[in-house]
Write a structure and sequence with these properties.
By secondary structure, this protein is α/β, with parallel strands linked by helices. The protein is built from 3 helices and 3 strands. It comes from sediment metagenome. InterPro entries: HAD-like_sf, HAD_sf.
């Protein structure tokens, strides 16, 4: 029985730096986020199917969370059971 709780594939990001990471994200139905590296630059990751790219994980997280004091424009949705960051200080 499906209760509709928790994260969904559509509300999940798969972050990777290789062509195969973008393929796996697509296969899982997740948002494909390409991080430029020696395995693939941002242009090649976008060509491989990345929905968005960033030059580093830190840059993507900064974009995801937004600047301090500003509401995030995050496209990902946390499900009600997602508590991996419980107790962590919030940036806003």
């Amino acid at each position: 029985m499906e209760l509709g709780l928790g994260p969904t594939a559509a509300g999940t990001a798969y972050v990777g730096d290789a062509f195969d990471d973008m393929r796996m994200a697509r296969a899982a139905g997740a948002r494909a986020v390409g991080i430029g590296s020696v395995l693939g630059d941002e242009a090649s990751l976008r060509a491989a199917g990345a929905d968005e790219t960033a030059p580093s994980v830190a840059a993507w997280v900064d974009r995801l969370l937004g600047p301090p004091g500003v509401e995030s424009t995050c496209r990902l949705e946390a499900g009600p059971t997602e508590d991996w960051d419980r107790g962590a200080p919030r940036r806003r």
